[in-house]
From TrEMBL:
Keyword S-adenosyl-L-methionine: yes
Keyword Methyltransferase: yes
Domain (TRAM) ranges: 4-64
The protein's name in its UniProt record: RNA methyltransferase, TrmA family
GO MF annotation, one: rRNA (uridine-C5-)-methyltransferase activity
Any one GO BP annotation for this protein: rRNA base methylation
Active site: 422
Keyword set, alphabetical order: Methyltransferase, S-adenosyl-L-methionine, Transferase
Length: 468
């Protein structure tokens, strides 16, 4: 065996990239020592500079691409390597999809202990650009006093001064240009994270892809924006917006806390309602600055249709939709179910869910505020084990489901469980539990909600074993 030799800091060494890590970085070996290389692609032959070493691995940066991998493409975005938004723009989209498919497969095998997972092919995008319906821009000041609006550089709070984003929406650049002019013209004070002084912190933009409605929300460390009437006028006259798009909502969000959390709780209207409207399929949703709403509407429709397909509803079923957000999946399923019960921890989201049900004349959906792992076991106990579900859908955040929730789900014996997941590792852990407690894993289908990032969603179907 080759003797492992730890390279020195700043040493430049040749390397061939053999694997891809959880954060999209390339992985290769030099004299048996593993190096993680940012922006490297499997198959690249590189010269890399060693930045930092630990006992068994280290980090390096590309100095020179000696022979590029056949999977390497030129990122469309000039700041792809600096920006914290995307991680794998340099990988061809086809390879990105293969990577994500394998990521899910490997988690199911390794963490879930599932030998031969019933994987369906990943659902990719036809055009994996300009897909996001939401953007949050930090606002800051350069040392020379110039206003900067843009994106955080990876893992830092230094702002790259640009609104050009190839995964964002095409209306963002002209709108940010307008807001930038206004801030300069009126000499509006800009928030400083260190001193907690200054007014404007962030700009949040949302767009309804189907309605072409645009929202602008200015996050401020205070309760008033000086000259806001001028801002409204300038935004409404904003040139170069894509055809038919129009600003229908302008508001402020008050965030006076010293925190990294972008939004505060209070919304102050400036122009129009404090929400925009959008459709997923036939269902209409009102989206406020604080609402959780999936950021890729094209893929969300495919994700929900897949979830609906896996539920196999005929119109007679009782369905629980846990972690329901603003009721997006619940209302989608209510079209085909007898009754849907949604559970979500954020009260405002449940308010939105209820008003979205009304907005669509949907009367067979009911919503509960609370933690899924508390609400469901409690309801189950209160009913003396009588509440019933034909189908349970879960769509938890990255940390997955609490075991106490899985326990109740198993006790309720639904015929089908549909698990929508944004983290294959916790999905695999939870599937292991469900498989060990009476469920068969039928299908797992990844969906690419976030092209050019390392994130992957998936929809999974489990059925109850003794039903067969
Ligand atoms: N199904 C929705 C939202 C999914 S995101 C959609 O597709 O839009 C996950 C949601 O779970 C978020 O809305 C979050 O607020 C909520 N959540 C987080 N922890 C929770 C818990 N313990 N119980 C219930 N909901 C929770």
């Amino acid at each position: 065996m080759e003797q492992v030799k730890i390279p020195g800091k700043n040493e430049v060494v040749p390397i061939t990239i053999e694997d891809i890590g959880a954060d999209g970085e390339g992985i290769g070996k030099v004299h048996g020592f593993t190096l993680f290389v940012k922006d490297a692609v499997v198959g690249d032959e590189l010269l890399v500079k060693v930045m930092k070493t630990k006992k068994t691995y280290g980090y390096a940066r590309i100095e020179q691409i000696v022979t590029p991998s056949p999977y390497r493409v030129n990122p469309r975005c000039e700041i792809a390597s600096k920006c914290g938004g995307c991680q794998i723009q340099q990988l061809s989209y086809e390879e990105q999809l293969r990577y994500k498919q394998n990521k899910v497969l490997n988690c199911l095998k390794r963490i879930g202990g599932i030998e031969n997972p019933p994987m369906e092919p990943i659902v990719g995008m036809e055009n994996p650009y300009y897909y996001r319906n939401k953007a949050q821009f930090p606002v800051g000041k350069r040392t020379d006093g110039e206003v900067v609006i843009g994106f955080y550089a990876g893992r830092t709070h230094s702002i790259i001064d640009t609104a050009k984003c190839h995964i964002g929406d095409e209306s963002t650049e002209p709108l940010i240009a307008c807001i930038r002019n206004f801030l300069k013209q009126e000499n509006i004070s800009i928030y400083d994270e260190e001193s907690h002084q200054g007014l404007v912190r962030h700009i949040l933009l949302r767009v309804g892809f189907t309605t072409k409605e645009l929202m602008i929300c200015v996050v401020i460390n205070g309760k008033e924006l000086p000259a806001s009437d001028k801002l409204i006028k300038q935004i409404l006259a904003c040139p170069n917006l894509p055809k038919d798009f129009r600003v229908t909502s302008i508001c402020l969000n008050k965030n006076t806390k010293k925190t990294n959390v972008i939004l505060g709780e209070e919304i102050i209207p400036l122009y129009g309602p404090t929400y925009i409207t959008d459709y997923i399929g036939d269902i209409k949703y009102q989206i406020s600055p604080l609402s959780f709403y999936q950021v890729n509407p094209v893929q969300t429709k495919k994700l929900y249709e897949l979830a609906l397909d896996y539920t196999d509803l005929t119109g007679n079923e009782l369905v629980w939709d846990l972690y329901c957000g603003i009721g997006t999946i619940s209302l989608f399923l209510a079209q085909k179910a007898k009754m849907v019960y949604g559970v979500e921890i954020i009260p405002q989201a449940i308010e939105d869910a209820k008003s979205n049900a009304k907005l669509n004349d949907i009367n067979n959906a009911e919503f509960f505020v609370g933690a899924a792992e508390e609400v469901l076991p409690k309801q189950y106990q209160l009913s003396g084990g009588k509440i019933y579900a034909d189908v349970i859908v879960v769509d938890p955040p990255r940390k997955g489901c609490d075991e106490s929730l899985l326990e109740t789900i198993v006790a309720m014996e639904p015929k089908r469980i549909v698990y929508v997941s944004c983290d294959p590792a916790t999905l695999a852990r939870d599937l292991k539990y469900l498989i060990e407690h009476g469920y068969d894993l039928k299908k797992v289908r990844p969906v690419d909600q976030f092209p050019h990032s390392v994130h992957v969603e998936s929809v999974t179907l489990l059925t109850r074993r003794n039903e067969l």
